[in-house]
Design goal:
The chain has eight helices and no strands. It is mainly alpha-helical. Helix 1 runs antiparallel to helix 8, helix 3 runs antiparallel to helix 5 and helix 5 runs antiparallel to helix 7.
């Protein structure tokens, strides 16, 4: 449930965009992301790397959108953040002893070194696909970018998490559970 909280600012952005336009929506997005991550910081005394990236990108690109009065800055936030996350996940295979996904989920899952690498690679591919899909919509169907930002992003994430869950279950990755194949 906690992971889905990250989508709350996106939903608020969508509603504000439909009601009052992109510039009000940009302000709503910046405020809601800042408040959400401040609350998480207050509760947990830390933010995940992806949350820091989202916070900084939202505030910087949202501010540029408002100051320059150009929605392109905000339109390119999703592709930029997704490419950055793909690079971080890919780079984590070469920095430190464990790929990033193992550092994030290792306490809950039990996988071999090669399976952790496969899972990490799946996340890299997922982030690159999300970046490409968002960029395509911005470039060729910019009239849909806000709708895609909510429904496309949620749909892609939901589908990926289901596929990942099925794969992890088949691997017997949940600690104390036998493989099913």
């Amino acid at each position: 449930m906690k992971a889905w909280l990250d989508f709350l600012p996106l939903v608020l952005f969508f509603v504000a965009y439909k009601v009052a336009g992109v510039y009000t929506a940009a302000a709503v997005l910046m405020v809601s992301v800042t408040l959400l991550y401040a609350f998480i910081w207050w509760q947990e005394r830390r933010l995940q790397t992806s949350q820091w990236i989202t916070l900084v990108a939202t505030v910087v690109l949202g501010s540029l959108t408002l100051v320059m009065h150009d929605e392109a800055f905000l339109q390119w936030k999703a592709p930029a953040v997704n490419v950055l996350l793909a690079l971080i996940f890919a780079g984590s295979s070469f920095i430190g002893e464990k790929p990033l996904i193992e550092r994030l989920m290792g306490q809950a899952l039990q996988l071999s070194r090669s399976k952790w690498q496969q899972l990490n690679s799946a996340w890299v591919i997922f982030f690159l696909l999300c970046a490409a899909a968002n960029a395509y919509v911005v470039l060729y169907h910019s009239e849909w970018w806000v709708d895609f930002k909510l429904f496309g992003s949620l749909g892609m994430t939901f589908a990926f998490i289901i596929a990942q869950g099925i794969w992890l279950t088949r691997q017997g990755a949940l600690k104390d559970s036998p493989p099913t194949h």
